[in-house]
Each structure stands twice: as structure tokens, then as C-alpha cells.
Write a structure and sequence with these properties.
Layout (H helix, E strand, L loop, with lengths): L17 E3 L10 H4 L13 E3 L29 E9 L5 H10 L11 E10 L2 E10 L6 H4 L8 E7 L3 H18 L4 E7 L7 H8 L8 H10 L4 E4 L8 H13 L24 E2 L1
Parallel strand pairs: 1-4, 3-5, 3-6, 6-7, 7-8
Antiparallel strand pairs: 2-8, 4-5, 8-9
């Protein structure tokens, strides 16, 4: 059972944390996911891809995903506490992504987020993980307040929406500098949101009027490579596609990631590779 709690909202309530033990591993690719298999859908089948390397293929993650429910076989293992901060332009879909993952609900309306925090428990590769997920506001008005979310972060998910090309451009123009300033050396994953809109005719026509097109898979992957990201993931919160996989990969990367400012390891290494349609891993 979950208890939702807002962090640092304008009414100055004390921070709290919503917890989910079962929703974290909920399979969201059922009835809604089936819609994503229509011929018009061009989204990759899986959410994220290992960033390619010359070391060949070593993708053994499929057999070691998160367990369903609580910690099977690990009752005496203390979960690893990991913090993941989610950033990106305002209205790009960050909160919808988190709501679908944590609550299994897709919000119909848009309400700007200041801060919101959730905790989920899951098992990745046999290791229990307690994942603290921090949702943040992308608007410039909250730049200084958002900086308070960065301390002790293990991984930053930097998001963009495929129907907002500027949100991808801002990863390099704004977000990577902010992340490196407040979280030097932290692991980063790039997450594409609203991937179902690539095939949306209304979106295509609207962007065409501005001489633009929806962001393609290769464009997002190229940005992830340039900033040295550990993962590139593609998701559709509305269709429930790639959401669970994105956070499983976030947990997987964060397991061995030092907190921001620590020196253990480096962000630029490459461990395995994968092709289009899977999870790009460094």
C-alpha cells in the first residue's frame, strides 16, 4: 500500500515519502501496452539501450530483472538505499512517468510539480534496492529551489519529450551543466518520454509548421552518447511502455554508483553493448 507525499510544496508542509512495495514491479505492458503494438507505433519494444561499445555483447540483464512483489529469497538482506533525481524541461512528462510507475495511474491533467518524493522497493539482479525517486520542477522559476534536491544523489534521470525537440536540445544547453555543477561525477541516464507521439499526425503537423519533426530514436541516443550517459531509455507513460524497465535500469546503474561528489568509479566507462530496441548500457 502506498502513501503519497509532496515534498517542499508552497504550503511548507514537512517533507514526506510515499512508499510502494508492489507497484514498483507492476507489469504495465498488459491491456494498455497491447495498444503500442499497432502498425503505426514506431517506438522500440523495450525502454532503454546500453550505449554501444567495442567490447562486444554482454547483455545478461534479461535473466536478472527485478523480482515481483517483495524480496524473494532475500529476507535477511538489507536493501541498498539509492537516490534517483528526475529532471528535465517543464511539462515534458516527468511526473506522468513517475505516477504510472509508482501508482499505476496516468494523470489526465497537467499540474506543475515543485518537488515530490516516492520510495519504492524492488529486487534487481537478486539485490534488494530501496529507490528514492525525486520528481523536480523544470521551469526556470524553480532553478534555485531544484538545487536542493541534488545532494547525495546516486543517479540522475534527465528527461525529454519526443514532441518537444527543444527539450532534447536543453539536455546539452542546460541540464548537463546543472547536473555536473551540483552532482560532479554522478551517473546519468537519458529518458525519452511520450514516444507514442512520434506517430501522432496532429503532433507531426504542428511541428512541421515550425520546420521540425518529432525527436527520433537516433537523435536521443546521440545526445546520451555525447554527455557520457550510462543508459538511454525510451518510454510512453500513456501506453505503459518501457516505464518499468526504465526504473529497473535506473536501480541497476545506481547499485554500484557512488553518491554525487564521491570519487569511486567514473561515468564514462563502457561495460556492454546492445542494439536498437533494448536498453543501452554503459
Amino acid at each position: 500500500m502506498m502513501r503519497s507525499g509532496a515534498l517542499l510544496r508552497t504550503n511548507n508542509r514537512l517533507p514526506c515519502c510515499s512508499r510502494s512495495r508492489h507497484a514498483a514491479t507492476r507489469d504495465l505492458t498488459g491491456p494498455t501496452g497491447a495498444r503500442a503494438s499497432r502498425p503505426r507505433q514506431t517506438m522500440p519494444a523495450l525502454c532503454g539501450l546500453p550505449l554501444p561499445s567495442s567490447s562486444g555483447h554482454n547483455d545478461n540483464r534479461a535473466a536478472g530483472g527485478s523480482a515481483r512483489g517483495t524480496y524473494a529469497g532475500s529476507a535477511h538482506t538489507r536493501p541498498l538505499a539509492r537516490k534517483v533525481v528526475v529532471v528535465g524541461d517543464g511539462a515534458c512528462g516527468k511526473t506522468s512517468l513517475l505516477n504510472v510507475y509508482v501508482k499505476g495511474e496516468f494523470p489526465e491533467g497537467y499540474e506543475p510539480t515543485v518537488f515530490e518524493n516516492h520510495c519504492v522497493d524492488l529486487v534487481v539482479d537478486g539485490r534488494p534496492v530501496e529507490l528514492a525517486l525525486w520528481d523536480t520542477a523544470g521551469q526556470e522559476d524553480f532553478d534555485r529551489l531544484r538545487s536542493l534536491s541534488y545532494p547525495d544523489t546516486n543517479l540522475v534521470l534527465v528527461c525529454f519529450s519526443v514532441d518537444q525537440p527543444s527539450s532534447l536540445e536543453n539536455i546539452e544547453a542546460k541540464w548537463i551543466d546543472e547536473i555536473r555543477h551540483y552532482c560532479p561525477g554522478v551517473k546519468i541516464a537519458v529518458v525519452a518520454l511520450k514516444c507514442d507521439l512520434r506517430a501522432d499526425v496532429v503532433v507531426q503537423d504542428k511541428l512541421a509548421q515550425q520546420m521540425m519533426r518529432p525527436v527520433e530514436f537516433e537523435q536521443g541516443l546521440d545526445v546520451a552518447k555525447r554527455i557520457g550517459a550510462s543508459r538511454y531509455c525510451e518510454t510512453s507513460a500513456k501506453l505503459g511502455r518501457g516505464v518499468r524497465e526504465a526504473f529497473e535500469e535506473a536501480a541497476r546503474v545506481s547499485i554500484d554508483a557512488p553518491r554525487a561528489g564521491e570519487t569511486r568509479g567514473s561515468q564514462g566507462g563502457r561495460e556492454s553493448s546492445g542494439g536498437k530496441g533494448g536498453c543501452v548500457v554503459s
